[in-house]
Structures are given as structure tokens and as C-alpha cells.
Amino acid sequence: MTVDLFTLLLLGGGLFLGWALGANDSANVFGTAVGTRMLRFRTAAILCSGGVILGAVISGAGPTETLGKLAAIKSVAEASIASACAGLTVLFMTRRGLPVSTSQAVVGALIGWNIWNGFDTDMEVASKIMLTWVLCPFLAAGIAALLLPITSFAIQKSRFHLFQQDAITRWALIIAGALGAYSLGANNIANVMGPFAHSIAFPELIIYQSLHLSGLQQLFLLGGIAVAIGVFTYSRRVMMTVGKDLFELSPVAGWVVVMAHSIVLLLFTSKALAEWLNGVGLPSLPLVPVSSSQAVIGAVLGIGLIRGRHGIRWSVLGEIGLGWVLTPLASGLFCFAALAILGQFNP
Amino acid sequence: MSFFDFFKREAGLLQTSRRVEQQVDEFLSIVVEAGEVFRTAFHVYITAGPSATFEAQFETINDLEHKGDDLRREIETELYAKTLIPDLRSDVLQLVESIDKVTNLYKSNLFRLSIQRPEIPKTLHSEYERLAEAAVECADTLIETTRSFFKDHTVVRDGAKQVAALETRADEISTPLLRDIFNSDLELAHKMQLMYFVERLDAIANQAEDISDHLSISAIKRRI
Fold first, then answer.
1. Cα distance from B150 to chain A (closest Cα, Å)?
2. How close, in Å, is residue A22 to chain B by CA atoms?
3. What element of type H or E holds B222?
4. Of A28, A346, B11, B80, which residue is most buried, by most CB within 10 angstroms?
5. What is the pTM of this model?
6. If interface means Cβ-Cβ distance under 8 Å, which residues of chain A face chain B?
7. Are the CB atoms for A195 and A67 separated by under 8 Å?
8. Which of B3, B13, B24 sits opposite A170 (nearest CB)?
9. B74 touching A (Cβ < 8 Å)
10. Which of B2, B23, B87 to mutate to test the interface with A (most CBs of A within 10 A)?
11. Is the backbone of residue B202 left (phi > 0), alpha (psi -120 to 50) or beta?
């Protein structure tokens, strides 16, 4: 398939989702460092954008493949409608103050597309994906609850001077942020460009005879750039807000949250990690785009549990649970309705 | 800013951290040294009155106080300019300023002795010296606790308990001393002057206790 300007314009729905991802979710990985002014916004934005683009291009295939098993949209226009519906659902629910995740909105839209086309949705794949939504925050909570005492023990044993610990924490936040950005790009690029994976095929690109970029990787590169634009244009305020909220925990606990988030996202992303886990006889997790924000909430809850459950707002878990049902339902209905209405003009 | 500049800046931050760490260490050592000088100067005053040796000790503590002030300002500037320890910056700044007041108290005690030259009756010498000793010991324990706060915050609570115990000991010395002063046949003005110096000595221990209380709270914040 040739890629013309019109096709690229139709990518707008996905690129909008990418922009929104960069504007909001980058705060999950660099919010602590920027909110506490340990890192300048520009530096964080450069590191975040680089990490997201690398993650998307290098490791973005796994979750996209899984989404493809749920629905393989062959028409760019329909993929664009599905993407735009997911994006608008996120926008609508956010404005209403309802818990929402882009991953869940995209899945809902894909199921809506299946229903409109009269295709059966693979329930095994769908249930696997839905299971990951539940698993994601709990896994993040477990990892954070494990990581916090280990980190605390290590700091206590090392007896770093407060100022040395501060310098080390800065570097740790930078490294965790870069890893977080990589895992965010790798995992969530499926939300941004996944619906287009079966409808747009760029010819293979060879740069300086050494760097080969497949059609899918070029698509992810475009999505990654959209995320980067979101990071640079709109994430500063979100980073300051989220960063200060996370910072209430202390910078080290903030680091634990970012690490738990990044590990969880990588577990749901990396083919190599999945193969390694299978190789050592451990169960691997399905490669699925998950909610970065819910991973962060899970990690914060995990830290709260370790610290004695004081001040934990259990209602947050209820709100997330509500989002698991409401978001895909709303997005699916929205996508179905949009396709039905627009189908009238193009029978 | 290029990435090279970024990494250079971050690597430079490690050096800055080490420099501030050394400055804080030096600042705390000055307080301990000032305590040592105060202890000697007070002993000299009790035994030999406002002698030349006493005045020399007073000059030494004056220099130490200036040095402490300079270091405090440098630490404050570095903490703010390089945005170090954002979560504990205000606690550390308050800590450094409060500890600086301990050196000020040492100096002001000697300054007042030098100016007022009170006549301390021989019968009260040992108790005054015991009180000065307890006050300095209390402040020294506070400095040890402060060093723990920077390196191993888990022992701060024990240190704070020790400071509180030493402050109580200072009270246990000062209260009977005040009774002795007012039960004596001295002139009321003389009694008032002697009372003033008891209270000035006690103030060192009180200041140390107040700082250690704040330190305990800051140590809780250091838990991750």
C-alpha cells in the first residue's frame, strides 16, 4: 500500500492520542524529578522524548501484536475513527472527572469496530487483556511494596551522607525516568499506532546502510514523535502537579514508584523478557498496553500498605475498577455509533 | 544546554554535595571546638577571674563564631543555589541556624563575663563549673546526634533522649544553685547578676534540647 498525504492525515486520530499520552503520562516518569526541581523541565522533556521514541521503535511490537489479535483494522479511515473515538472518550471522561485509561479506551473502540463489522471478538484475547488491567495496579503495588524495604535497607546499610544520598537519588531518578520513558513508549505506542498497524505499511527504510526501520517501526516513530510533541508542549504543568503529589512520599519513595511503574510496563511489553521468564519456568505476562497512571496509583498504594495503611484512599481502587468497565463500554459504544453514522455516507 | 553540559552539571553536583557535606562537618566541628574553648575559658574565669588568659580565650571563641557564621552562610547559599536536598532543605537550614545559636550563646556568655566581671563566691564555684560542664556536654551530644542525622538517622532518637537527659541534669544543677544564691547574704543586685549567669548557662542546654526535638522530627522525614 502506498502512503499518501491523505493517509497521513487520517493518522491524525492516532497522533492526537500520542500527543495526549505525552502531555499526561510523561508526568508519571519524570514528575518527581521535575516537580521537586531536581531536574529541569527541558532536560526531562529531552530524556523523556528520547526514551519514548526508542522504546516505541525498538520494543513496541509485542503489545501491538496482541491488539492486532483483537481486531485487525484494514481500513485507515476506520482505524482513524476508532482512534479518534478512543481519544474523545478519554477527553470526555477526563472532563467529567471519571477514571479513564487510554489503553482501555482503545480496546473498547476495537471491540466496537468488531461489533459494527459483525466480526467475532476473540474472547480469549479479550479476557487476557482485561485480566491485565486488574493485574497491572496490583502487580505495581506488589513490586513497590517489595522494592521499598529493599531500598530502605540498602540506604541504611550504605550509610550515605544526606548530601551524597541526594546526589545519588538525582541520578537514580534520571535513570528510572529514562527507563520509565522507554517502557512507556514500548508499551503504550500500541494505543497510539496499534489500530493502524494493519492498514498502513511504509516501505522499509534503510539509513546509512546500517539502520533498518521496518514499516511498523516507522509508524511507531511517527507516534513517538507525536508523544514527544505532547511532552514538550503540554506536560510541564502536569509534571509539576503529579510530581508534587508523588513527592509527598519523599524522593526515594518517588523513585520506587517510577521503578515499579517501569518494571510493570516492561513486563507487559518485552518479548525478550517474556521469553526469558518462560525459559526459567516462570509464567510470562501477555504483551498488552496497560495504563501507566494505574501502575503509578498501584505503586503508591503498595508503599502505603508497607507504611501501615494510614491515609490510603481505598476509594481510588473502586474508581479504577469502575473505569475498567465504564471506559471500554463508553469507547466501544462511541466507536460503534460513529462507524454506523459515518457508514451511512459511504455505504 | 547540550547533553554534555547536562552530564557535566550533574557530575558537578556530586562534587558540590561532597563540598557541602565537608562544610557542614566543619561547621559542626567549630561548635564542638567553641564548646571546648568555652569550657576552658569558664574554668579560667572561675579560678583566676577576668585574666589575660580568659580574654585570649574570649578572642578565640570570637574568631570561631565568625568562622561559623561564614560557613553557615556558604552552606545556605549552596543549598539554595544548587537546589540540594529539596525535601529536607528547610529542615537543614533551620538546623544549621539553630546550631549556630549555640556558638553565639558560648560567645555571649564569655562576652558578658568579660564586660560585667561578676564576682562568683568561692562556695558556688564548683556548682557553676558543673553547670557549665553539663551545658557543654549537652551541646556536644547534640552535635553528635546531628552528625547521626546526616549519616544514620535511625539513631537520632536515642541521641535526642541523651540530650534531653543532659538538659534535665543541667536543670538539676541550676535549681539548687539558684536557691543557694538567693539563700545567701549577698546583695540583691549581686544575687540578680549571679542568677543571670545561671540562666545564661542553662540557656545553652535548653537550646540544645530544642534543636534535638526538631531533629527527631526531621529524622522521621528522612525515613523513605
1. 5
2. 21
3. helix B188-222
4. A28
5. 0.82
6. 36-38, 40, 42-43, 46, 148, 151-152, 155-156, 159-164, 166-167, 170-171, 174, 247, 250-253, 256
7. yes
8. B13
9. no
10. B87
11. alpha
Looking at residue A293, its pLDDT comes to: 86
CB B134 within 8 A of CB B141: no
**Shortest CA distance from B6: residue in chain A:** A43
**Contact call for residues B109 and B54 (beta carbons, < 8 A):** no
Alpha-carbon distance of B41 to B71, in angstroms, equals 24
> Model confidence at A317, in pLDDT bands (50, 70, 90)?
confident
Write out the three cell numbers for A41: 523541565
The H or E element containing residue A206 is: strand A205-207
Of A42, A46, A164, the CB nearest to B17: A164
For residue A51, name the pLDDT band (cuts at 50, 70, 90). Answer: very high
Within 10 angstroms of residue A334's Cβ, the number of other Cβ atoms is 22
**The C-alpha cell that represents A306 in the structure block:** 508497607
Q: B48 and chain A: CB distance < 8 Å anywhere? A: no
Fold exhibited by the domain B3-223: Methane Monooxygenase Hydroxylase; Chain G, domain 1 (1.20.58)
CA-wise closest residue to A97 among A323, A300, A291, A317:
A323
Q: Using CB atoms, pick whichever of B6, B151, B221 lies closest to residue A43.
A: B6
User: Count of H helices and E strands in chain B?
Assistant: 6, 0
Question: Residue A206 — φ and ψ, nearest 5°?
Answer: -115, 120
B71 min Cα distance to partner chain A (Å):
16
pLDDT in tens, A253-309: 889 999 999 999 999 998 888 888 888 888 888 899 998 988 988 898 898 888 876
3-state secondary structure of A97: coil
Residue with cell 489479535: A69
pLDDT at A170: 84
Q: How confident is the model at residue A248 (pLDDT cuts 50, 70, 90)?
A: low
In whole angstroms, give the CA distance from residue A195 to residue A297: 27
